[in-house]
Design brief:
alpha/beta; Rossmann fold; GMP Synthetase, Chain A, domain 3; 2 domains; six-stranded mixed β-sheet; 9 helices; about 35% helix; disordered N terminus
Amino acid sequence: MSNQEQGFKSGFVSIIGRPNVGKSTLINHVIGQKIAIMSDKPQTTRNKIQGVYTSNDAQIVFIDTPGIHKPKHKLGDFMMKVAQNTLKEVDLILYVVDAAEAFGPGEEFIIERLKETSTPAFLVINKIDKVHPDDLLSLIETYSKKHSFAEVIPISALQGNNVPTLLEQITNHLNEGPQYYPSDQVTDHPERFVVAELIREKVLHLTREEIPHSIAVVIEQMKHRKNHDTVYIGATIIVERTSQKGIIIGKQGSMLKEVGKLARADIEALLGSKVFLELWVKVQKDWRNKPQHLRDYGFREDEY
């Protein structure tokens, strides 16, 4: 009997929320592979990351949006447009909040966006391991007064607590539909994109506060070497200032070597083959405010 004959369900689910509430951690836990970069620095997700979860009776295509925040530059404007446009394109919205954070103006801003769409929304309260159950109840009450959520589900994305319940409830809310992707496919992004994101994650992880939002990673080359089981990858890390270039390269190239070592391990796991990774660092002043550079580095507004 085919999936469709058994009442197979499918749909697109957007994950929204303020920066750093654990959206990427949730996608990575559900998919079981690292496709969305994780960092303790906010605003690390820039493009829509699609994670594909397939079970025997459903396929859920997750879209992870940039954290909703007030934009400060053209890249910020782009990120906000991506986040808001996604709400119109999906079957269900997961609004993820941090259980340890009080309700504030940022949450009010997002709830106003939810009221502007007819798409049903779940309130997903993440990081429940950080709070007392009594505090959780009052937080649920606060949010429930602000918006009529289809479901309220407390979870810990990091530990996996209650995530199976969340997947079950999502499946219940989806309509019958086709399987959009093969069962073993976990993302619709080309490998180059995921490789660039893994390199960027390592830079974010290893460098100081001044670096994160002023870097982009461009994959210059990615090819199988003849007579080798090795994939050659050449990538350029783009920064805005000469001082940042020095930080990323490090003393006698030590920082860049460490970025390469950590990124190569993740890329080899992703590709399932040995990787020769070569990294360069290039200064492109104020690239985040220049539409041409944003296009060159993969931020295409016309795609959304």
